[in-house]
Amino acid sequence: MNSMPFRYLLIPTLLLSFLSFAACTGASDGGNGAGTASSQRKVDGIVLVTLADLGTAQSATFGGSHPTPSLDRLAASSVVFDDASTPVPMTRPALTSLMTGMAPDRHGVWNDVRDTLSGQQTLAGALNEAGWSTVAISGTALVESGCGLDQGFELYEAPANLDVGPLRYFPIRSRVSDGEVVDKFNLWFESKPADQPFFAWVHLSDPHGVVTSGRNYDESSQAYAQSVEASDKALTALLDTLEPMSGRLAVVVAGTNGVLHEDLAPPAKAKDRVRDPGRRGASYWLVPETLQVPLILRAPEQPAGRSGARVWLPDVTATLASLAGVSLGDQVEGVDLLAGSPEPDRVRRAWTWATDDEFAWPALTAVDAGDGWQSFATDQLASGDGSAASALAAERAPQRRERTLSAEIQQALTQAGLAANFEPRMSPALEEGERNGVLSEVQRIRHHYQAGRVIRQARRSRLLIEDHPQNLAAMFNWIYFWVYEATGDGTARGHSVEAIKRYPLRPDLMHWSGTAHILGGDHAKAEILLNAAIELGGEDRNALYDLACAAARQDEVQRSLGYLERALAAGWANLSHLERDPDLANVRTDPGFAALMAAQVQ
User: Fold this and answer.
1) Alpha helices in 297-406 (DSSP H)
2) pLDDT of 25 above 60
3) 3-class DSSP state for residue 134?
4) Could you tell me if residue 292 is left (phi over 0), alpha (psi between -120 and 50 degrees) or otherwise beta?
5) Worst-scoring range by mean pLDDT, 20-34, 135-149, 397-411?
6) Which DSSP string do the residues of 331-344 spell out, in sequence order?
7) How far apart are CA 396 and CA 419, in angstroms?
8) Which of 79, 143, 373, 559 has the most CB atoms lying inside 10 A of its own CB?
9) Rounded CA gap, 239 and 127, in Å?
10) Alpha helix ranges (H) inside 7-131
11) How far is CA 232 from CA 73, 80, 179, 213, 293, in A?
């Protein structure tokens, strides 16, 4: 089974089948969508560089706190948008908006791990169909192959996220440095076809998560400053590569989200519980620090300067589509920034579902109608406060995920004594200051574990669940600790069953409870729980792999092989672990296993 908390593997998807040049069609007219069609492209190449966890508040180019000389260099010959915003302060959803031109409430990718893009056209897909060479290189598993952003790219390279549980939302170890990412891009650039237009997307992510990584504020600040410096240095190397290129080239640098890094007041005594109001991270808050992002655009014949227009990431999609002479149809919500400024009374929106996914708190939406960002929780919008901002937010309020279990699974869980009430529940309400404290504390706990500070992780997890015994995140972290640090004495099983009784419609809780039961030797119950996790959360490769282990431990070899086949189809890639996992010893002797592995090699 997946008995190790960190499993990471770089899996480059190298599909270099350069297509012959074809006539391009479609372009943006600068309206509300992609606009009318046009057959003329204005550039021979587009390089899109995206930056994670670097907002305008953190970049000196935009008046922020950290030197970013590479951005200064590009800005000198480009249009700099001083008021650009992201529609969601999370990596995968924000990048999905960039690639589709759609806001996240419409493209449906709401988190960094479970959600994948499906059924929507992407900028890379439109360009590839028009004969462009397309390449994407990322150092983070948050945009791993299979997340949907790879569609349309002939070459797509990103590490795979093989972490599970809470750390799946924070796979900092499954990453490649920004310097290595740019080195890979430079190698590709040197060998690209000379007579074919190209679209290259390079995602730089060194600062991601570093803002919460230290034991204290000063340590985190220093680590974050170093990561910004490294990311900026990598960008310098990329710009050096592009400098000699002749012809028509567009270069765009866009951020996905900013960060919050507030000093946390220490408790009065060392033994006191942590309930400080500081805020760290990005995805849990919709405020200017997390929403305002760098946006710099250099295009042929475009005068350099600064713009105060209120823009957001879907505008980049419309602009690049227009430069390339392609169209994504009516799905694009942005405007062509080179065709004129957006309407001064436009409404920008932002959302986050992180609180609902991870804490069972209401999701948030924010609006900016020209007088600054205002944020509302979903439960606030239900009653409304009578303000214009509240009414605008309610027009596209984030919906909660509808999760249900079939009658068959409910009956199996009830008969096994694992759950009985299958109504959706929210965590007990907390004051804003308490929420901030819990959010920050959970991030600290995850970083303690990643850094190998298990004693600190255990102590802080215990204190958190003592302070908030019914909170989903507190339960989650406590279960996580016992699953990976206990010896299968039943503690993890007991904690997980108690959590499921309160939150029976959470796929991750079902998965972790299944893992705990495998460790405890109760494989029949584990299989019930893991099937519930699949029904709630879809074909999750890790849950399917653990199902294979649970079935194998019950000597159900053919059922185990069926689960393995599904896990591989869902993206399970750690074949070396599969071939040595003791849980699957009896399965590996079956001829079906050899056939399954042979199919993977092919």
Assistant:
1) 313-324, 354-359, 378-383, 388-395
2) no
3) strand
4) beta
5) 20-34
6) G--S--TTS-PPPT
7) 34
8) 143
9) 23
10) 69-75, 91-100, 104-107, 123-129
11) 11, 17, 9, 20, 15
The confidence score (pLDDT) of residue 164 equals 52
Sheet holding 364-368, edge to edge: 348-352, 364-368, 374-377
Q: What Rg value do the Cα atoms of the chain yield, rounded?
A: 24
User: Under a CB-based contact definition with an 8 Å cutoff, are residues 293 and 61 in contact?
Assistant: no
Q: What is the pLDDT of residue 527?
A: 97
| Residue bearing the bigger pLDDT, 516 or 296 | 296
Which DSSP string corresponds to 168-228?
Answer: GG--TTSB--HHHHHHHHHHHHHHS-TTS-EEEEEEE-TTTTGGG-SSSHHHHHHHHHHHH
Mean pLDDT (the chain, rounded): 85
Considering only residues 459 and 3, tell me which one the structure prediction assigns the higher pLDDT.
Answer: 459
Quick one: average pLDDT of 323-351? 92
Residue in this structure with the two tokens 């302070």, named with its chain if needed: 467
User: Using CA atoms, how far apart are residues 424 and 403, in angstroms rounded to an integer?
Assistant: 8
Measured CA to CA, the distance from residue 129 to residue 152 in angstroms comes to: 8
Distance between CA 430 and CA 468 in Å, rounded?
A: 10
Could you count the other beta carbons within 10 Å of the beta carbon of residue 188?
18
> Rounded to 5 degrees, what are φ and ψ at 175?
-150, 165
How many CB atoms lie under 10 A from the CB of residue 177? 16
Q: Residue range 140-158: average pLDDT?
A: 92
Lowest mean pLDDT among 79-83, 210-214, 350-354: 210-214
pLDDT score of 170: 56
CB 170 within 8 A of CB 155: no
Cβ atoms of 67 and 229 closer than 8 Å: yes
